[in-house]
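In the design runs reported in the main text, the only information available to the sequence generator was the tokenized backbone. The following block is the verbatim input for one such run; it is reproduced so that readers can re-run the procedure and compare outputs position by position.
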């Protein structure tokens, strides 16, 4: 009878070990399958912050619009920072995030086109000028008086670079 009890104890121990290993393997397999079936959220796109640099050729000492240009650039930087802060919040809805991304894109494009148009105008003899692109209008400020021909060419350059119609281009003459 002693042998029989020893054999039973060994069998129970063997079955206990097999049961423990089976349970462990089952739990590990369950966790593995659970991880595989989890849907990973799409990563947010990385949006590069546009660089607004103070180009010394753009800001010359005899530029009477210097303070206005610097103010415009500071305000644009603040707007971009506010939009970035909004987009970095995880609690905003997808619709709000898409609207913020659209506005961010519009502002970066406006900044780029303003600089491009100012450089084109300077290359064509309008040295003291400033361009501001809004959502509905393009405003071009030039120093001095314009002849009708110069005003027309300035409007055409502005419409071509910005994609706005001539009716949406406002030209302001700054008195001497």
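Verbatim output:
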């Amino acid at each position: 009878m002693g042998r029989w009890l020893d054999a039973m104890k060994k069998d129970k121990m063997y079955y206990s070990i097999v049961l423990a290993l089976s349970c462990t393997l089952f739990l590990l397999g369950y966790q593995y399958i659970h991880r595989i079936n989890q849907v990973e959220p799409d990563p947010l796109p990385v949006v590069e912050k546009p660089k607004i640099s103070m180009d010394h050729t753009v800001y010359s000492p005899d530029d009477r619009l210097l303070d206005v240009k610097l103010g415009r650039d500071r305000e644009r930087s603040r707007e971009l920072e506010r939009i970035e802060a909004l987009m970095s919040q995880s609690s905003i809805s997808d619709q709000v995030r898409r609207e913020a991304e659209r506005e961010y894109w519009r502002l970066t494009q406006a900044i780029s086109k303003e600089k491009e148009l100012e450089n084109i105008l300077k290359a064509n003899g309008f040295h003291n000028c400033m361009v501001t692109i809004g959502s509905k209008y393009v405003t071009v400020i030039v120093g001095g008086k314009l002849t009708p021909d110069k005003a027309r060419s300035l409007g055409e350059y502005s419409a071509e670079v910005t994609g706005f119609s001539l009716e949406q281009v406002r030209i302001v003459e700054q008195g001497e």
